Amino acid sequence: MKNNIKYFGLLAYLFLVVASSCNKDWLTPNPLSIYSPENTFVDKAGFTSGLAACAKNLRDEYFGDGSPIISENIFSDISVEGTDDKSGPAQNMDMQIRPDAQLNNPDFNRIGWYWDQEWVGIRLANTLITRIPKATAVSDADKNILLGQAYFFRAFDYYRLTNQFGDVPCPLTEITTAKVDFATVKRDVILTKMKTDLEFAVQYVPWVTDKGAVNKGACYHLLAKIDLALGLFDDAITATTAVINNGTFKIVTARFGVDAAVKTKNVTWDLHRPDNKALAANTEVLFLVTDRFGNAGSYSYGVSTQGTRIMRQTNPGISIGTNIITPMGKAGASASGGLEIDIMNLYGRGIGRCRSTPYEYKDIWDDTKDYRHDSVSGNYMFVENVRYYAPALKGVDTAYGLRMRLYNGTKLLCSDTLRSWYPWPHYKVYVPDPENNPMQGGHSDWYVFRIAETYLLRAEAYVWKGDFASAAADINVVRTRAGCSPYTASQITSINQVLDERARELYWEEPRKTELTRIAYIFAKTGKVAPNGKTYTLSSFSTSNYMIDRVLDKNIFYKTNFVTNHNDMMKISQYHVLWPIPQAAILGNTGGRINQNIGYSGAELNVPALDKIPEQ
Length: 616
Description:
Elements: H1 10-13, H2 37-40, H3 44-59, H4 69-74, E1 79-81, H5 93-96, H6 111-131, H7 140-164, H8 187-204, H9 216-229, H10 233-246, H11 267-271, E2 285-289, E3 299-300, E4 303-304, H12 310-314, H13 343-347, E5 354-356, H14 358-363, E6 407-408, E7 411-412, H15 417-420, H16 426-429, E8 446-450, H17 451-465, H18 468-481, H19 495-505, H20 512-526, H21 546-554, H22 556-559, H23 583-588
Antiparallel strand pairs: 1-5, 2-8, 3-4, 6-7
């Protein structure tokens, strides 16, 4: 009898696949694999392969059906879960987001994926960090570079964990035996250690590396995020300025790449073509993850590598059932590709899983010249620009080939406007898909850090310091590249303008929930007055915070407790500023206490978080 239970989180960190089995063979030592750490991590090539595994682990956030990044988006102001034909998707967070709930399933949410895989990433990085200094076949110069790159990956995962889950354990070395006595460490203590590590990294990691490998610009960029998280605004300005002034990375302002000769397009379109992301001409990318055609059919940590699947996740469900009808009452769409009017292979067969909000697709767009919201060039798409294409209409219904309409007089022609009627950023999510008909979203490299965000991070630091003129100048670098008129200093009044620009520029790139939680922590740490006129404290963070107040203000679905066609309510509460620690991780830690976040069951058993990382 074998037990293949998958241990949550920290138990996955330990390489444990332990069972209460009647077969005790797992106790018997086996010969070391040629791929074991002892045999692999001995030279530069071996450590480089370990770093590639770290990047692979990070990459999977953006890929596959029910991509984990959806969970970041729906706990924010920009999106909600649009699936409304069944119960399970994360809509009523009070009911569905619990420590003992289903937390890692595309049909529910992917909170558990983050908990599991960020610990996997830390385990991988810790193995490298422990072994690099001992490698006699590696030069001291190479050791420093490799160590700095491993520090980057570990800091990346701890940055995410501490802004998703708050205070968490903090192992810093390779663990080779079972350990079940982890203790929760204060968030700021962990981030301070990550800051020190990244300050080492920026000394030794080079500015120029292979595409997909960690470079100095990525290290500085992550360091700036951690500086901001710690409230060290001058340090964040120093880190971002190092990237901006170095000259290795530059905002792309000229047409380039595969469609450069297509006059109806623009630089925004070029920047997000899959074939252009890793080009030498693309000076904007600090760090990207790679995915190329040919990986189909394989899985990594539960995430399909069959491409991005991004059009399936983000685009409206135009083809779902008879959601959209013509004025004559006939089904206006089809789920088939390859038709005379081939809508499914122009825009992909969306299912509205990550449904954008009016804040994201309407409210933030303040300049009609903005390439990123331009429907004339085809960058931004509206359902009203899609034509009725169901083959059965031809010769029978005069609507065939005409543009879709939401109303015929006062009659609503879409039975599910949540899932099937909203605009989308075609320039960002269009990824040709030769493996699926209709298309769902094929293979593409994906941006993790771009210098556009570096400018917005520096702008944010200037806002915190009250230097609105400098903030405007940095935001304008991003805005004017998109064809917008620049802001004046007087138009920058708060963090709102930075967050709006991030929503315009970084959709499906930034982890929106992580960044909003980080900003909520800053308001609570500093006591600065938020744009809503409120002040916040750390002591009441889970009962009153800027993140959820902003979500309830900007996200109309949570604000109004929207009820879906399936009769599920959309609801989010203050304590959702932090996600629950999966119950299995807490119960498995039998020799210590991992704290639960306030608002979730089990928090009453919490003990004070450590203000020092334990000796290991």
